Amino acid sequence: MVLPNQLTVLRIILTPVFLFFFLSEDITFKQISIVIFIIAAITDWYDGWLARKFNYITTWGKFMDPLADKILTSAAFFGFVFIDVLQLWMVIAIVIRDFLITILRLIAEHQNKSFYTSKAAKWKTFIQMAFIYYLLTVYTLKTFDFIYVGNENIFSLLLDENIVNYSMFAVTVFTLYTGFTYLFKNKLMIKRLIINED
Q1: DSSP SS3 for 54
Q2: Could you count the other beta carbons within 10 Å of the beta carbon of residue 167?
Q3: According to a count of CB atoms within 10 Å of the terminal CB, is the N or C end of the chain lower?
Q4: Out of 3.30.360.10, 1.20.120.1760, 1.10.8.60, 3.40.350.10, which CATH number does the structure's domain 3-195 have?
Q5: What's the pLDDT score for residue 138?
């Protein structure tokens, strides 16, 4: 197994580890969880860079790498649902959209066909990750007394329920929009995939 694929496997392994630490009652574990998430996210960038630079592109890697990405981001979103920060329905909508599009793309690649990818879809990934990093950073900083004490009002504003909910709603709407764009732009391709036509 080439190094990029090993990093993909590492990212999958780190995902439940991150979730365990993040949901732990131990404050130190919660603080470590963001480090685990960052390491897992870095493997996504690094394995892609290695695969392109040294031509370590394999069928297994093309199949598992995008799935590993969705598993990581989905775990983070569900983690915030478990601690009552995000609403379940929005997370489910995002996860269904992401996995549906990923599976369609994988099926297309398996049949040597390519999907149209919009710039909006790339922005979707960036916005999702930026929002996750924002929540993780603020919640982690909140666990440090020397940072939190004296700045309660700032953290209260940063974690304001309305701000978080409206931000998540915007992320959800944009994610679904890019999903519908995918389906519309690739409707003929999807039809061929379903009936397995060349």
Answers
A1: coil
A2: 16
A3: C
A4: 1.20.120.1760
A5: 96
